[in-house]
Amino acid sequence: MPIFSRRGSGPRIFFATDIHGSETCFRKFLNSAKFYDADIIVLGGDMTGKALVPIVGNGDGTSYCYLQDQRHEFGPDEIERYERIVRDRGLYPFRTTEAELAELQSTPGRLEALDRQSILDVVQQWVSLADERLDGTKIRAFVCPGNDDMVEIDQILQSSKRLEVGEGRAIDLDDGFQILSTGWANRTPWNTDREEDEEDMARRIAAMVEQATAPPEKLIFNFHCPPHGTALDEAPELTEDLGVVGGGRVLAHVGSTAVREAIEANQPILSLHGHIHEARGTARLGRTLSINPGSAYETGDLQGAVVELDTQGAVKRYRLTIG
In the CATH scheme, what is the code of domain 9-50+115-322? Predict the structure, then answer.
């Protein structure tokens, strides 16, 4: 059942972000249009996972793996179940032996290469799944890789028949709306694949804004990094060696000043963000409603936001969701 009435409404958008390789969350994302009666579904940055998980055979038919620093032993009839658990947590399982694993660990670059290939293989599987699930529908589905996503996935995403890659473009939507997207972020302590200085972020955003032809009340920003100095960019403060200050009770603003300046200068009707998983919420910057739905991908819960737009260029209503 729709959570809002559609009478007199413009586009309805479902937005989620930072699923970090969780297969459960991606499947839920593909089902979100039907579940929330959305015309448009948008997946923000950081689509891919963070690590390999070896499923190590003991040589007697049993295997083991480590999840959250806990060792799990299991028989041959449980190996597929554990592989699903690993994938649902946004990780990449691979079957190996003690000897093979030792060789991989002793050869520089081997594990990294295996990790990167695993990411590419899963993204290809997701593209195939999206093309199958969305075939024959009028749903528009947008993706925009984030700072944690390696650039090699872009070509795979662009091969999709149903997923539209939004990076760096002003894309027309129904009722005169346009969406502008970027997955790049300001500098982080982790030196990720798509991050840059604030000056470069500002130029990147300005180049997109120059493409836009819609008025501010019909502009949507889909910027992975949230605006600096809001409730959407608060994260635990870190020490120089990446320790957490005060057990996580001390927060710092880590969002982008370039993103905030672009929102304040252009006043889009809506801006969608992610990046900071724990900063779930909304903020107002002038006329702009900014949303970060947060992320709980490790548990398979898809946090999101449903936003219904008025045909005249207003947010009729919105709701943060989890499911």
Answer: 3.60.21.10
